[in-house]
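Running this now, will post back.
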Amino acid sequence: MPELEVIIGLEVHAQMSTKTKMFCGCDNDAFGKAPNTTVCPICMGHPGTLPTPNAVAIDKAVLASLALECTINKENHFDRKHYFYPDLPMGFQISQFDFPLSEKGTVTYDIIDDSGKVSDTKVCGITRLHMENDAGKLTHKGTTTLCDYNRAGTPLMEIVTEPDLRSEQEAVAFAQELRRILIAVNASQADMFKGMMRFDASISLREKGTEKLNPRSEIKNLNSFKALERALQYEEKRLRKEWEDNDGPRKGDITVGWQDDIGKTRLLREKETADDYRYFPEPDIPPLTFTQEDIDAVHATLPKLPRAQKEDYMDMGIDEKQALQLVDQSDLRSIFDAVYATTKDAKRTSSLVLMQLLGFLNAEEKEVNDGPDPTKILELVAKIDDGTISANTGKDVLQKMVETGKSASEIIEAEGMQQISDDGAIEEMVQKAIDSNPKAIEDFKNGNEKALGAIVGFVMKESKGQANPGKVNEILKKKL
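Update: finished.
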């Protein structure tokens, strides 16, 4: 059997983060809403209704295209894509076909090894990005199927890659980087739990060293990175077995569905072609036209992208794994950036946010947005910096902030955790420590500097950790 290589391409559907749907004024947030409550005659395709394109959705699709280094087609239009499915109320989808919004982009992404380090850097080409509206949702109960049309009409970007991916690891790494980009430019929240980002993955095999693309298997509607990885692993093994049994590649394209509960794909149908969908220009929506000035105006709003963000954090001295953590979690990044802007100390900020805060949140099984917000963390930093509490006590306060949701001030006042900085009070405690530890004093006088640690420790224990450590050391050295 010849040596085979895997060829993978993705079609990614991402819901655009707009207030209203693609072609009507209905609420675009259907998650958790009662079925069929965010619909109107337009998104339900009633006769005599006319779709009106969402200008914000178009701007977000243009911004995403520029972030993916795509070329905007200054003239493009919507098309009708015909297929019947119960959750598609119009009987067709308003999409784009031969004149999409943008084409020919690239995404650079990293392969991360088990230690969290970058082991390789790859580039995947983007064939096109086009806009379309989503279908609704079907729920199957026994022999009954229920239709919820809340999601029908939701604005989508479909991002189609070149067949540049060579393993499930590359496919997942690319998809993760794409998600970071879409979130960074606020084109999509890409919340996969809410179905805001989904994948169709096409996979085929060919003899290594050849350029021919063989018939492919398209895996539909993968809704997580883990599902994408597992489905591609399974289908690759199945295609290799099929190649071995048939002494060559399969004869035609197929579409399969991923059954996550049993970890297998199942055949759905032979793959459709463009002819099956009977595309033609959408007669109710005029073509879209862009000037170079329009494109430049959107480009000027392009924020810093994830790879640049990661490099900035690493330049501060943050390690690669932590930098990726910050890029991936916008809520965590907001807290880190706010604390760093105050302290100007990356090491201290990293310790407070990425080690202490995350550690306490994990212990309580809480998400970042369920813990203290940046304002409350900054209040804690201020209490440490002005000497109200010590850094060590600050750690205890932070833990209680995560556990209770209270502010630093409330916890410090309620539990009497204010730091003791009064010279007279500390001098009394230091003298008591000296009197109680004659052996340590003798060792210090004999040249053992570390012996002072026992004296300081005695004071901190007597003061229940509230004595100002700096003043304790200062007064102790004066007395000795």
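The chain is about 40% helix and 20% strand. More later if anyone needs it.
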